[in-house]
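Please annotate the following for my students:
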Amino acid sequence: MSLLLSGRSLLRSVVRTPRLATTFQRNNTVFIPKSVHAAYTHLTALELTDPSNGVAWTEVPMDNLTSVKYKYQRAVKGFKEWAGVPLPDKVNIIKKFGELVENEKEDLAYLLTLEMGKPISQARNELNGLQTRIKYFVENIDFILEKELARKGSNFEEKLAYEPLGVIVNISAWNYPYFVSSNVFLPGLLTGNAILFKPSEITPLTGASIERLLHEAGVPKDAFICVQGKGDIAEALLSYDIGGGYFTGSYNTGKKVGALLGAKCTRTVLELGGKDPAYVRADADIEKAAASLADGAMYNNGQSCCSVERIYIHKHIYEKFVEAYVAEVEKLGKPMDPRDEKCYFGPLARRPQPDFLYQLAMNAIRRGAKLVYGNGEISKPNEGFWYPPTVLADVNHRMEMQHVETFGPLIGLQRVRDDDEAIQLMNDTFYGLTAAVYSESKDASEEILAKVDAGTVYWNACDRVSPYVPWSGRKASGMGSTLGKLGVLAFMKPKAYHL
């Protein structure tokens, strides 16, 4: 028997639309067993702020150490139940989850926009993209997990099989909460693991929506459990005897996660920051490259793990490219209410980010960069978290903005002499997530990309993630893989049979 602590009493007048209020009231809940009810009465509330106006619109109860312990104990039991479910049944449950997401797509997109400011059309795009991930995993999980016959002799055989890790922890991010979390929970569940899922404190209601829909689809409530909170709650989750920890976020936090899990020899996958470069060769189609890279740097307000953050342009086409690039960014429009269907640039998700970007841009300008697009103004703290799309030309590697992760609509354009200098500058980074080359020559591009130390590389494309191939970072961009075959095996432990 459980009691229900509801967030409905915490709703503020900002939630006015019936469809959103219904969705919110369904999700802003914590189920409390009588045995730990006293602990839950002292829950701390997490305040949610609409980034478009800076107004706090509701509060969500956070877990505490007592509730985390209880949820871990539930997950241990849930693993035993879920691991025994036949794979075809698991596949059908995940398919059903996809159908439920599609049925509620408009409400889910609106909620995501309200939580982190993603333009409504882009929120809808993320939910559409989730279906591609579901399709990949349900169609390929069977043969990925097949037992492999390694060797067979006249009187022996050697086989390789895989087993689930057990209870795993998924600490997810706010910038693409459906993409990032599903990279873990889709293969994690299909391979038989139980999941303790901590969404970002910026998007807790989106996280709760994922939990609710998975349960409605048929995942046992003890096999997928949402845990709300900040860093202390994540640390508490990682302290338990878990089979694996999967984290997406900053490099500094990732180091802490890696240290905690490494001390226990626990499976660890980290997707951390990026400072992703693109190089426009002298033979590139300038107009197409400019359009692609404008979107690659500015989509989701530049708050993508693989957003383009550095653009190098061959000296022979530099001026023409700068002109074309500014024109393409201008076509994307001005910042506006993210609920507007025409919106491309919404607010940033985090309050400190506009000032951080402003300081980076001003420091670069003081060192010789040229402001070619943007007015350099930021919103007042009580008016939302806004920063205008900003393009700087004539940047160089003496400027901080060419080295730190910006995670916003700020991009620098830098002239290079030739391919060799471009390669040297592309590798002059702490990170190694993605890199792109724009050129009419596929062979020349592949030759360049082979010399760039990045986990994913593109020819005449950028800011793209596919579930069909691994997603992995190098250096400070992380360790391990999600997506693709490797991203499934990341949730399994091998067992060798000598028969």
Summary: The longest strand covers residues 157-164. The CA atoms of residues 279 and 312 lie 5 Å apart.
